[in-house]
Design brief:
With 92 residues, this protein is mostly helical. The chain contains 3 helices and 2 strands. It binds zinc ion (ZN).
Length: 92
């Protein structure tokens, strides 16, 4: 694959906390709540929604075979997704 054919996503500078919330998740298009820096993507920053952030962390934690992976993932998922419910409730 030629480098000129690679579609770039993300940006080189991280988003501000306010700025990233104005963006859509680079994976699914839902409102973003955080960002991810990917080394293989030229260390670019990409906006992520809470659900995609949890899924990305699941992949990384399992791949790295971290001790207590299931507990870590349960805690992280509960923290992020319950925060999102509170945020959504405040917007209604
Ligand atoms: Zn997403």
């Amino acid at each position: 694959m030629s480098n000129s054919k690679v579609r770039r996503s993300g940006r080189r500078k991280p988003y501000t906390e306010v700025g990233v919330r104005r963006k859509s998740c680079s994976r699914c298009g839902k409102p973003a709540s955080t960002q991810w820096q990917c080394c293989a993507n030229e260390s670019r920053w990409s906006p992520l929604c809470a659900q995609c952030d949890v899924r990305l962390n699941e992949i990384a934690v399992r791949f790295m075979r971290l001790l207590g992976a299931e507990t870590l993932l349960r805690r992280y998922s509960t923290k992020l997704l319950s925060k999102e419910v509170v945020t959504n409730a405040n917007n209604e």
